[in-house]
Amino acid sequence: MSSPLLPPGIEPAELAWRDGVPESVRFGDVYFNRDNGLEEARHVFLQHNNLPERFAHVDESGHFVIAENGFGTGLNFLASWQAWQNHGPMQGATLHFVSVERFPLTRADLTRALALWPELQPLARELIEKYPPLVRGVHRLVLAEGRVRLTLYFGDINEAWQSLDFLADAWFMDGFAPARNPAMWQDETIEQVRAHSKPGTTLATFSSVGRIRRALAEAGFDVQKTPGFGRKRDMLRGVLPADGQTNGNRPVSIAVVGAGIAGCTLARNLAERGFPVTLIDSAKGPGTEASGNVQGAMYVKLGVEFNDQTELALQALTYAQRFYETWRGEYWHPTGLLQLAQTPQEADRQHRFLQRNHYPREILYPVNREQASELAGVPTESGALWFPGSGWLEPKRLCQALADHPGITRTWDVTVNRLLPCNGKWHISGADGTTIVADRAVICAGHVSAGLIPVKGEFRLKSIRGQVTHLPKASLHNPKVVICGNRYMNPALGQIAVTGATFDLHDANPLPTTESHQENIRQLTAMLPAILEQKSAEKLDVSRLDGRVAFRCTTHDYQPVAGPVFNGRDDELGDLFLLTGLGSKGLTYAPLLAEYLADQLTGQPACLPVRLMRRLETRRLYQADVVIS
């Protein structure tokens, strides 16, 4: 058996293949029925949770949640996805599938296992393409253009159910047989199943063990034996008695103030879930402030210690890489990215980082100076961490593409100056007299967000000026990848390449300055002495360079905020939310935080564990007691 890995790595499943069927070496059991695993999944889990009929009754913009105790090969998930595709609403509604796996399959093993089911191949290919790297924690996969969302937790089952925030409509109590994997069937686990259920929740399990039946009954489920599949004589099905109440899914209207990368990803996310959205900005279109640069690097700097802050950054990075694949070759350019160890301090930091952590090579791995130079296409002065799945974006064009959706009403040239709750709705007033009314509102207005929060008091948000420099391609030894250190350098787009950005905490000048261009070039050439083509560099007139200034919004602890706004420290200010403080990493954090906030706005399962949700809370911004204005 393999030994535990350093964080955040997780040990993969060890498989033995017998007659083409995978078997767990650790547990000595098969992942699915040797005769017909797909039909077994349909019989045990779909039929006995009555899923095809229940799927057909889900409202447009509604959702249905299935939770599962063991993901394994993903066969139950694919069978459910196929049934949702055949029986669920055609658009808007979302199937959420929440599953746990302590020993996940590698991508290669998953591919081999799912090849046994030709009829599932279109779905299997999408799952395999988006299958996450083997690191502990939560992974949210958005599939079928948003109609299916898979929340996959790699880790211990009880830890997962304590960490995740959801209520299931149906349970698949799968996993290896209780005698072979007793940890999966503990009383604590069954108590967690009850805690994540609501009146009317159903369950099914291939097991008919008396202890399991009694534990489910004690937890409040009405349980009965029923014929199993094939040679399996019995199985169990159950239901948590309903209380007679039903919760409809009314498609509430949502206004998003601010059309930068945060606002545009959120608006698009909500629209794809079937919710009507109004996207508001003071400019003539999306992506004009901090998200308006021609190019932007998509990266994070992972901490030496794998703590909550590092985990959030890692989840944001891997989710963003999956999210942007839709626009590969258009606005997303996954060239790979080098984080140089350009100073002795950074070299030491990277050395300690590699000693204390285990990351799959698909996320990052170290390269020496020669390898870094070869990857970059220009000489580097040091080794680096190589992120093969990262790259650069065209933020303005991306924002325009995100905002272009029939479910989004685009409202430009409106400078919002007041948000007021009235009669259960939010009234959003513009300086020109425009009023927009919505059930819920989200402030995504970057460095002006604090002024729009309708409570009195001080908020620990700050604005930081950043100037980028546009270097002529003719003056460069053009790199093949994004290179980061004290500055970032992108491969050229057309005839320019963007480098930057300055970090000017106490400077409110909105115009580019020669001094900031000089600082960018000084830092760039210190990082990459050979980046400028010598003859062209000698003729480079810094005073004539183009560039751009934008103001990043960050918080006192340099961590973003996403969640409901509070009236004071304890009471939510009904249906008003905040998404801001993304700092210089907005391109990386925006997709995940938009997904998380959309989960909250729509009452759907959260894509983050509870402890990371706490890191994003808005109430930590309050410097003193505040009251509604």
From TrEMBL:
<feature type="domain" description="FAD dependent oxidoreductase">
    <location>
        <begin position="254"/>
        <end position="599"/>
    </location>
</feature>
<comment type="similarity">
    <text>In the C-terminal section; belongs to the DAO family.</text>
</comment>
<keyword id="KW-0274">FAD</keyword>
<feature type="region of interest" description="FAD-dependent cmnm(5)s(2)U34 oxidoreductase">
    <location>
        <begin position="257"/>
        <end position="629"/>
    </location>
</feature>
<comment type="function">
    <text>Catalyzes the last two steps in the biosynthesis of 5-methylaminomethyl-2-thiouridine (mnm(5)s(2)U) at the wobble position (U34) in tRNA. Catalyzes the FAD-dependent demodification of cmnm(5)s(2)U34 to nm(5)s(2)U34, followed by the transfer of a methyl group from S-adenosyl-L-methionine to nm(5)s(2)U34, to form mnm(5)s(2)U34.</text>
</comment>
<keyword id="KW-0511">Multifunctional enzyme</keyword>
<dbReference type="Pfam" id="PF01266">
    <property type="entry name" value="DAO"/>
</dbReference>
<dbReference type="InterPro" id="IPR029063">
    <property type="entry name" value="SAM-dependent_MTases_sf"/>
</dbReference>
<keyword id="KW-0808">Transferase</keyword>
<comment type="similarity">
    <text>In the N-terminal section; belongs to the methyltransferase superfamily. tRNA (mnm(5)s(2)U34)-methyltransferase family.</text>
</comment>
<dbReference type="GO" id="GO:0050660">
    <property type="term" value="F:flavin adenine dinucleotide binding"/>
</dbReference>
<feature type="domain" description="MnmC-like methyltransferase">
    <location>
        <begin position="118"/>
        <end position="240"/>
    </location>
</feature>
<keyword id="KW-0949">S-adenosyl-L-methionine</keyword>
<keyword id="KW-0819">tRNA processing</keyword>
<feature type="region of interest" description="tRNA (mnm(5)s(2)U34)-methyltransferase">
    <location>
        <begin position="1"/>
        <end position="241"/>
    </location>
</feature>
<dbReference type="InterPro" id="IPR023032">
    <property type="entry name" value="tRNA_MAMT_biosynth_bifunc_MnmC"/>
</dbReference>
<dbReference type="GO" id="GO:0005737">
    <property type="term" value="C:cytoplasm"/>
</dbReference>
<keyword id="KW-0560">Oxidoreductase</keyword>
<keyword id="KW-0285">Flavoprotein</keyword>
<dbReference type="InterPro" id="IPR036188">
    <property type="entry name" value="FAD/NAD-bd_sf"/>
</dbReference>
<dbReference type="GO" id="GO:0004808">
    <property type="term" value="F:tRNA (5-methylaminomethyl-2-thiouridylate)(34)-methyltransferase activity"/>
</dbReference>
<dbReference type="GO" id="GO:0002097">
    <property type="term" value="P:tRNA wobble base modification"/>
</dbReference>
<dbReference type="Pfam" id="PF05430">
    <property type="entry name" value="Methyltransf_30"/>
</dbReference>
<protein>
    <recommendedName>
        <fullName>tRNA 5-methylaminomethyl-2-thiouridine biosynthesis bifunctional protein MnmC</fullName>
        <ecNumber>2.1.1.61</ecNumber>
        <ecNumber>1.5.-.-</ecNumber>
    </recommendedName>
</protein>
<dbReference type="GO" id="GO:0016645">
    <property type="term" value="F:oxidoreductase activity, acting on the CH-NH group of donors"/>
</dbReference>
<dbReference type="InterPro" id="IPR008471">
    <property type="entry name" value="MnmC-like_methylTransf"/>
</dbReference>
<dbReference type="InterPro" id="IPR047785">
    <property type="entry name" value="tRNA_MNMC2"/>
</dbReference>
<dbReference type="GO" id="GO:0032259">
    <property type="term" value="P:methylation"/>
</dbReference>
<dbReference type="InterPro" id="IPR017610">
    <property type="entry name" value="tRNA_S-uridine_synth_MnmC_C"/>
</dbReference>
<dbReference type="InterPro" id="IPR006076">
    <property type="entry name" value="FAD-dep_OxRdtase"/>
</dbReference>
<keyword id="KW-0963">Cytoplasm</keyword>
<keyword id="KW-0489">Methyltransferase</keyword>
